[in-house]
Design goal:
- The protein has 4 helices and 7 strands.
- The strands form 2 sheets. Strands 4-3-2-1-5 form a 5-stranded antiparallel beta sheet, with no helix packed on it.
- By secondary structure, it is an alpha+beta fold.
- Among the domains are: about 40 residues, Roll (SH3 type barrels), CATH 2.30.30.730; about 70 residues, Arc Repressor Mutant, subunit A, CATH 1.10.10.
């Protein structure tokens, strides 16, 4: 589901992708439900493409949101915009202890918590996409395996035809 949830540079909140056109996307605000066009000149990013810097690499946003959901037991995070930075960093260290302290700023954590709260308010299940992707990935792997087996059978049958034709 995070592939259809967008963040638009210069606009607060999150937006759901409704329709895609040649030069624009139609989005719906998750906070007030209003729809409007977003042109290709705007910087738009899907939440599925967002990751958090860690000391060992990057962690997908979905993983961080899932950890917050587990910690908060599916409830909203009770921070607001005036929460001191020390509290934000302490909270985030509980969620993702290996985050890169040099590249993750308080504003990033505030935005992340705001996004999480919006997703929870709108009952958007960001974990469901992962389960669906795993299932479809397994199905695709099985289909590919069957196709390879069928190709091998055809190839071996063709070789038999060629070899039997040559011996006559």
């Amino acid at each position: 589901m995070l592939t259809k949830i967008l963040s638009i540079s210069g606009k607060p909140g999150l937006y759901k992708l409704i329709s895609t056109g040649k030069n624009l996307n139609i989005v719906e605000s998750l906070t007030d439900g209003k729809r409007f066009p977003v042109y290709i000149t705007k910087r738009v990013i899907a939440l599925s493409d967002v990751s958090i810097y860690t000391e060992e690499g990057d962690v997908p946003l979905k993983t961080v949101l899932t950890k917050i959901k587990e910690k908060e037991k599916g409830e909203k995070v009770q921070f607001n915009s005036k929460t001191p930075n020390k509290e934000l960093f302490a909270y985030f260290a509980e969620i993702l202890p290996e985050y890169d302290k040099d590249r993750v700023y308080a504003s990033d954590i505030k935005k992340l918590i705001n996004w999480y709260n919006i997703l929870i308010e709108n009952k958007i299940d960001f974990e469901a996409e992962e389960k669906e992707a795993e299932e479809t990935g397994e199905e695709k792997a099985e289909e590919a395996k069957k196709e390879r087996e069928e190709e091998n059978i055809k190839e071996s049958a063709d070789k038999k035809d060629v070899s039997s034709g040559a011996s006559k």
